[in-house]
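Reviewers asked in the last cycle whether our approach scales beyond single polypeptides. To address this, we selected a multi-component target totalling 173 residues and predicted its structure end to end. The input consisted of the following lines:
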Amino acid sequence: MKTASKTFPLTSIAVDSNTGKVYPSTYDMFTVGAGSLDIRAAL
Amino acid sequence: MVVTAAGNLGRNGYATITSPGNDLYAITVGAMNTEGTPQRSNDLIPSYSSKGPTWIDFEVKPDVVAPGNLVHSLLVPGSTLAKQFPGNISSPYYIQLSGASMATPVVSGAAAVLLQHKIPAFRPTPLRRG
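The resulting structure, written as structure tokens, was:
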């Protein structure tokens, strides 16, 4: 998709404040897809 | 044009996009956390946003991500949502909720604008692939 941007970090880590469990994320195509929607660029 | 949420099973890992998000002809939307700022530089994907590939047939999804973390939206006072999440009510007629379901209407609205301005006679696939 031409009208989306991928200004994301490569990875991030979230911690559940209730359980303390750690959830790492890798920002690949299965996580962000084409990226964040950029409607202004599309128009 | 069908726009659907990817789901909120991302904490279970990959291949957590199930029906209806695994439909090839739907635009599948994941959630994004804007950190409450307009800048894109600090945007993150919340851990709950479901990750591809899709369940069963391994399609590459989500298609896009949009703001879905603590999004302000309309609230019917006294509704089930108001009773279940009283701490999320920001004013009598607004509530903050998180999830891919909150991100999906952002893309639905954007798709409507695109269709109105760019593609008079639309079909799902061209817009999704465009």
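Helices of chain A lie at 29-32, 39-42. We regard this as preliminary and will revisit it once experimental data from Aim 1 are available.
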